[in-house]
Amino acid sequence: MSPTGTPGAEPDQAAPAPAAQPAPAAPAQAAPGAHPAPAHTAPPPRAMPGHGETHRHVLVAIVLNKPGVLNRVASLMRARNFNIDTLAVSHTDQPDVSRMTITLHGDDVLVEQAAKQLYRLIDVLKVQDVTGDPTVEHEIALIKVRADERNRGEVLTIAEMHKTRVVDLAADSLIVEATGTEAEVDALIALLRGFGIKELVRSGTVVMSRGSGSIEEAVKR
After folding, report:
1. Per the structure, how many domains does the chain have?
2. Per residue in 66-108, pLDDT tens?
3. Which of 15, 36, 72, 169 sits at a 20 to 30 Å CA gap from 53?
4. Same structural domain for residues 128 and 153?
């Protein structure tokens, strides 16, 4: 007989105790002075075309000799945020066609895009970037240098070493005519600057591709 008096009944079994639940973790405390991380991270800004490095470029444009063409070319370069280093304009063998030589510094891809837009302008017949082509490149500069009896001989020696011409001689100055690439003219000016440059004018770079090819023969007419 069971202790409770019910025949065949087994003594009551104690119910198992519920398993202990782990305590919720305390929220991580931010380090002193640290800003909380944003819920959503903004995507990185889109990269501009090219790698961002600027190089010197030489563009040749064949245009119709009409009023306003030069202004449109300069305005397009300004809108593309380019600063024109030099700009030389001259007639060609055809009286109604002019030739522009533009030098500037910019990203390769951006300069290529600007050249394509330049070609779409009215009265622009042909545009070519001759930066990497074999070319003949020259610039002319007139440099008026301070030169008196004490240093005139030294100035003349430097001018002779750089194969320049003295085109004017005064009591306290002389004018040197220099031709060559932009780098060669820069080097001469750097040497003469120590004597004192009174006046300087440069024509800007003009180029012509070597070989039998001709940009003027390929213009759209």
Report:
1. 2
2. 999 999 999 999 999 999 999 999 999 998 999 999 999 999 9
3. 72
4. no
